[in-house]
C-alpha cells in the first residue's frame, strides 16, 4: 500500500474482502461447534451447550445476553404499538365516519329513533313490520377465514416493524465494542477458544496497511468499524493468551489444559500492532520445550500455517 494512494473504490473492495474472510471464520467455526457433539457428554449435546450450562462461562453468557438485548426493548414496544394500531384503528375510523354521517352506532336504533317511535304525532299512516332487534343496522360480521387472514397480516406487519425498529435502535458502536472485549471476561471464553487462533492467523496474513487505518489497538474513542473490532478482538486474544499462560505456569498446568481467569478478568496489558504481527515469526524460532509465553503463542495460534501468504 506504499507509494501512490489507492482509489477509494479499491479500498472498499479490499475491506469487503477482508471482512468476508473473517466473517467466514466466525460462520464456519460456530457452525462446526453447534453441529459437533460434546465429548464425554452422556446426553450427546453440542459443545456450545457448555456456554449455557457451565458456570465457568457465566461472564461470557452475560455479555452475549447483553448483545442480544441491544435494541430488543425498542423493537418489542414498536411491534406492540403497531399491532394495537392495526387492530383498533379500523374500528375507530369506522365509528368516526358514522358519527360524521349521522348514522347511529351499530346494534342500536339510537335515542332519536326510539323517541320517534313513541311520538304518536310523528308516526306515519302505515308502519311496516320491524325487523328483529340488532339486525337492521348491525353490519355483517366478517367470516372466520377473513378474520384469520387479517390477524395474520397484522401480526406479520407488526413483527416486521418491530424487527426493523430493533435494528435501527441498536447502538452498533456499543455492540462491536462488547464483542471485541469478550476475550477479557473472567472465567472461560468459548468464543475466544474457538476464534482467537483463526483470527490471529488471518490477522497476520492481512496487509498491515489495513490495520494502520483502524486506529489504536483498543478501539477506545471514535466510531467502531470492522477493522477496529477485529483488531481489538485479536489484541484482547493476545492479552488473554498471556494471562492464561501465566496462570498455567503458576498452577503447573499443561499448555493445552483449560484455565479459568479469576475476577475481574484479563488485565489490559500493552499490546502494539507490531506485537501482533511479529509474534508469529518469533514463535517459529522458539524452542518447543520452553514454557514461555512465545511457545504457547505458537501452540495456541497455529504457527505452522504462517508460511501461507494471501494477497
Mean pLDDT: 73
Share of β-strand residues? under 5%
- End-to-end CA span: 11 Å
Instruction: Provide a count of the helices.
Output: 12
Helix content estimate = 55-70%
Which outline best applies? elongated
Number of strands: 0
Radius of gyration: 33 Å
Q: State the order of secondary-structure elements, H for helix, E for strand.
A: HHHHHHHHHHHH
Secondary-structure-based class equals: mainly alpha
Largest sheet, strands/sense/barrel: none
| Stretches with pLDDT under 50, minimum 5 residues | 280-311
Region (Disordered): 279-311
Biased composition (Acidic residues): 279-288, 296-311
Describe this structure in words.
By secondary structure, the chain is an all-alpha fold. Among the domains are: 73-114 and 133-168, no CATH class; 172-305, no CATH class. The protein is built from 12 helices and no strands. The chain has helices at 8-35, 50-53, 58-69, 72-101, 110-118, 144-168, 172-180, 190-205, 208-212, 226-251, 273-284, 293-301. Helix 10 (226-251) packs across helix 12. The longest helix has 30 residues, at 72-101.
Question: Descriptors for this entry?
Answer:
single chain; mainly alpha; 311 residues
Summarize the structure.
It is built from 12 helices and no strands. The protein is an all-alpha fold.
